[in-house]
Specification:
2 copies of one chain form a homodimer.
Chain A: H1 14-24, H2 28-33, E1 63-67, E2 70-73, E3 91-92, E4 110-114, E5 120-123, H3 124-130, E6 133-140, E7 163-172, H4 173-179, E8 189-194, H5 204-207, E9 210-214, E10 222-227, E11 230-231, E12 241-243, E13 256-262, H6 269-272, E14 297-302, E15 306-307, E16 310-319, E17 325-331, E18 339-340, E19 342-344, E20 354-362, E21 365-375, H7 397-400, E22 402-406
Chain lengths: ~400, ~400
């Protein structure tokens, strides 16, 4: 989906960024709450900040806190365990999370279902009766990898940690549609609206989280109330979240209060001009590609810095986005030569990531260790990735490589 | 493995129990620390007790605390997510866990490797270089289901919650053996010794955790330093645990400090007389079956009590022990009739459990909901399960059924 042929503009971006900001938010209160929309904000330092209260249960040692609404997983925390535990999973909220009261009585949560033959509101307790399924998938922020671009795009400077591999349980959206008599005529998009509180005095369209994805996503979309075998936490969208396997994080609407099957995409700014891929310096517009399906990607998680000489396991994670990952190659010389890595551990399905491993015997010296994944359709990670205004979707292997000194 | 033809003795006499106790421990200090060895202790109440300090990070709402060393997962906490999160996983220590200092510098942990051509001690950092793999498996206490027996066996009255499905990462034991020049001649067992501190004044053989499993377990055995994608916690055996997929929990030796390939089973009491299956009233002896491979088992996790009438998803977990589970049937009338359930979600491999689901439309009334699993070799859960002295290995489907009232 992401258009790698976007032409890069060298134009200094102050003006065009301001245009984007006006379109995207336009109120100081929102800018404060939403670093993605901040104008010219310096990249937030990656040093230790305290976890905000609503995620105080997270593993502080595994997280980099960028702001109250943006925290990523440290690269070394991913390990080889295929699953990202909830207390190490990144957090990214477009506006502040609702209060904890919405998870006090989970089954009482209401979802309005529209764009079906028989529109209605259902409580979560009723949704739970309609069906249950479980899917493992990569959850990844559109801006994961932004920190590898050099054009100083606004937003959190995520490196690799705005992503995780998690297991969702909930009701297939298809089962909900069936219980409502089927789709209304003309439905072309699944549109989810989040339950965040809109700050008073702001135009809701400018700040609300309402995203649309193509109706084809109905094949796998789910309304989830569990993550990794536990009740879905507030921080990750509980009591109910729209889950769209293969799609970037923003499309997985948290605290979903309205599920609509619509003829057009949402007219909220987050859809019309936000999360649009365009050359550096341009403002967002509906004609540009939206951050929908993810692309093939991988990164090494071990070793990352110094390493003792001798037998070493080089490993990391790889996924195909909306396709399964097929294979991964690893280079220890910055891409001059490549060896096929082995995929280990359980295969959690087409939308999940796999752990790859290459056994090596490293002698003292300096190494540039890179990984390059290929998906089931033959798409390969590119060496480089051209900048785009908001620095979305970076999957270039060179920037994700790590320098390791073996002594 | 578990011998279902053990003849049941009605003689639950104090004398024979005392004999077992003498063989198993024989010191008041140990009895206090080890409820499994307690004489005639009343079944511990299942009401709320505070979590001990070393597991204060667990989700208290999901746990039943039996004692400082024994906590099980509440049945309703399993959900449909296939994985058991670390903060909901049961805990069972045979003697008190070591201090937290052993996980302060994980890579410095030492493992003595014996019964190989070139015996030696390796640090965890070195083990990590030898190989890495990941396996999902059911971890289950031998006594899981003890609470369904009526013969008042000593030990924690676990119902279904002394079990979980978790993902381990570590080095295959085979790779460690290879790095040590291969097995020494005559190796017939893998013997692991735990790093617990033996209380002063006690005979180590009577209290130490040292278990042996057949050398055939080498096919899948692992030395694990991660669980569910995170560093292995002290409570679950960190920094290093022997993992033997398909085998009962006790064989997965925590804080392993010695890995030996031996001609005979360990002479520690936990192996010679502990974890032996025999008729009620008999004492443990090496001639009896040891609690090694697990058997086929399942239980419903939803619904458990009252339920609204109408569409309902009946679900639970099922596993084959040392075989994959092949299918599950569900009954809503106490076993008079059965319907095939559907297995949902990712298949995490032969040693993991699956989530099963049956969609039902329940009208007001009383239901006895049961599940009955079949493994890949055609083994089916029995209706009943004959008592054995220590109440190990219960997999009878009738006792695991739940009574549900639909209104």
């Amino acid at each position: 989906m992401l258009n790698r042929s976007d032409k890069t503009s060298e134009a200094t971006t102050a003006v065009s960024r301001r245009h984007f900001i006006v379109a995207g938010a336009g109120a100081a209160g929102v800018i404060a709450a939403n670093p993605e929309f901040a104008v010219g904000a310096p990249a937030l330092a990656q040093d230790a900040k305290a976890l905000p209260d609503y995620v105080a249960w997270k593993n502080a040692n595994a997280m980099i806190v960028h702001s109250k609404n943006t925290m990523e997983t440290k690269r070394e925390a991913f390990g080889a365990g295929v699953i990202t535990p909830a207390d190490q999973l990144y957090v990214r909220n477009n506006i502040a999370a609702p209060g904890n009261d919405i998870v006090a009585d989970r089954n009482a949560w209401n979802l309005s279902i529209e764009g079906v033959k028989n529109p209605r509101t259902m409580k979560l307790s009723e949704l739970k009766g309609l069906g249950v399924d479980t899917v493992a998938m990569v959850l990844q922020c559109s801006g994961n990898g932004r920190g590898f671009f050099s054009h100083k795009a606004s937003g959190s400077p995520w490196k690799v940690g705005a992503a995780g591999n998690v297991i969702w349980s909930g009701v297939p959206v298809r089962a909900v549609v069936a219980a409502c008599g089927g789709l209304a005529d003309g439905a072309k998009f699944i549109t989810g609206t989040g339950g965040e509180t809109i700050p008073q005095g702001l135009d809701p369209k400018k700040v609300m989280v309402e995203r649309s994805v193509p109706i084809a996503a109905l094949d796998h979309a789910m309304l989830a109330w569990e993550m990794n075998g536990a009740d879905l936490s507030l921080a990750h969208g509980g009591p109910l979240r729209l889950v769209v396997p293969g799609y970037y994080g923003v499309n997985n609407v948290k605290y979903i209060k309205r599920l609509a099957f619509t003829a057009a995409e949402s007219d909220a700014n987050i859809q019309t001009t936000g999360y649009r891929v365009r050359p550096v310096g341009q403002k967002g517009a509906p004609s540009q590609p939206s951050m929908w399906q993810m692309t093939v990607k991988s990164w090494v998680t071990h070793p990352l810095k110094d390493n003792a000489k001798g037998p070493t396991q080089i490993y990391g994670v790889a996924f195909g986005g909306d396709n399964p990952v097929k294979g991964v190659e690893v280079s220890t010389d910055g891409g001059k030569s490549w060896k096929a890595a082995k995929l280990i551990g359980p295969d959690l399905g087409p939308f999940a990531w796999r752990v790859f491993v290459l056994s090596a015997d490293l002698q003292p010296g300096s190494y540039s260790i890179a990984s390059r994944a290929t998906d089931s359709k033959g798409n390969v990670q590119p060496e480089d990735f051209e900048p785009n205004e908001r620095a979305y979707g970076h999957n270039g292997w060179k920037a994700h490589a790590v320098s390791v000194t073996v002594v």
